[in-house]
Structures are given as C-alpha cells and as structure tokens.
Amino acid sequence: MSIIERAAEKIKRSEQEKKTSEVSAASMVTPENNKDAGHENLKSTPALAGEKIQSYQDKSDAIGQPELIFKLNLQSLAQNGLIPPDGMRDMLEQEYRRIKRPLLSNITGRGAMKVSQGERIMITSSLEGEGKTFTAFNLARSLAQEQDSEVILIDADNVRQTLTKLLGLSERLGLLDALAPKGPSASEIVVRTDIERLFFVPNGTRTPTGPELLSGNRMEQLLTKLTASRPRILIFDTTPLLGTPEAVILSEAVGQILIVVKSGVTQRNAITAALHPLDRKKSISFILNQIQKSHGDPYNKYQYGYKYDA
C-alpha cells in the first residue's frame, strides 16, 4: 500500500470515529459534502482554511496513483487573515498583479535579464509578524492565474509551520520528510488544491535537523524533480532571516528573494542585518506591507503592497 493510500485510510478512519458521513473514494469533492472546516478563533485553535482530503479525483497522476484534491475554504482563509473578505479582494488582486510582473519577467527574460533559477521564489522577512505568510499565499494564488505554468506553494517555515497548520495538513508527509534519507518521493508530498494550477507542499514532520536537511544534496534533487516535468513556479514561505538559519540556507537554493517589510514597524537596522548574509548577486526585492491609507477598516492593511527592487 502506497503512502498516499495509507494517508487516505487514516483520514477515513478518523472521520468514521467522529461519526461523519463516509465519502465514496470515487466521488468528487463538492461544496455540498465539504463541511468539515473548523471555525475556531485563531487566537485559540485556528480554523482550518482547507478541508480534509475526502475523496479521489477521477484520474491518476503521472505515476499512476489516484490523485487527491484538497478543497480550500475561502471563509476560513478570511477568518485566519490569509485573504481579506469578499469586498476587499479585488483591490488586493490588482496589487498582486502588479507585484508579480517583475518576478515573471525574471523567470522568462521578457523585458528583463533572465534570472538563474528564477522560478524558485523565497518569501521572507527580517522578523516575525511582517506578513510573509500572507504575501506568500496571495502571491501563489495570483501566479496560479497565469496560463503558462503551475505553482507549488511550499511551507518551508520549519519553526511555525503556519500554512500547514491553517490548512489542516499537519498529519501529511511534507518537505522535511522528503529531504530525509529514504523519504517519500516528490510526487508523494505535493497536494493538488481545487484552485486550478495551484499545489501545496506541507512542511512535514518536525525534526531538530531541519537546517541540515535544507542544506543537503536531497534538497536540490527535490527542487529539480518538482520542476523537471512541466513549467512550474516554486513559492517558499520561510522563517524570518533573523533568529533562525533556515531562511539563509534556503536562499542559496532559490533565484529570487522577496523580503516583506512592515510599514512603520520594521527598523532599518533589522533590514540591514537581514540582508547581510544574503548573496547580493541574487534578485532581491522588497514588499512594503500594511501601508495605512485610511482609518476604521480592519482589512485596509492588506490593500496596499508595494514592491521595490534592491
């Protein structure tokens, strides 16, 4: 029995214990049977921003295994601050359309010099709480609207695993598992979402040797496999640059580095310290996040993200 099949059976047993209705392995995930997302307050237990994998898609992937679809719950995404509510999303989408254009030019070489490994984009910050996870998620969604490539959003934050937790995928094998000796293959850790062309890789099983796994040879082999068969853009949500070594290590494996700066909060000396260990030959850019344009709007901080090239 494959790892994917074992994971599916584990989820199925869990659902039976909770006396929820069993979903046929041949059925599609639909809004009608997709009702397991939690709605707890983020400050206590996060509301899951995705549904548990409930059924097989009616097709197989490249290695002949049934492919699982993971349905994202937009209401829970908004509750957890990963996206603003409906009325605010149009402006956000316009901002990310503007942000992604230089990144795409660096990948294709159209209108700019092509960046080596430009399809690998790392989203980080100097310190915690500057909006890097929000930026990584929404940038990945925006890039997935492009017709020429798929997007894989990778939770590379070994410390907090925020995306993995919010999406309810903590029990899934992920990046750290694939980097371990005799770990799962690349295809076994990639989760297809119900957003066309958008995939997700959970962080995986916690380990004290996470930094060493990121710097090992298996990391480069994994990233090569993820982009070998078809055009793909890899978006990494990482730890902050200051305090832990993971982000600096990962920066060596990517072509583009996007640093999120919180407007009016991030100190210049923190930015300088964060930049110090990075290879300045890489494409390094900044997003100024949470620019205040008006008062009284709790989601106003998400409306304006401005990108500056380093």
From TrEMBL:
Residues 1-42 are annotated as: Disordered. Keywords: ATP-binding, Nucleotide-binding. Residues 1-21, 33-42 have a biased composition (Basic and acidic residues). The keyword Metal-binding does not apply. CDD domains: BY-kinase. It comes from the Bacteria. The keyword Transport does not apply. This is CobQ/CobB/MinD/ParA nucleotide binding domain-containing protein. Residues 121-253 form the CobQ/CobB/MinD/ParA nucleotide binding domain.
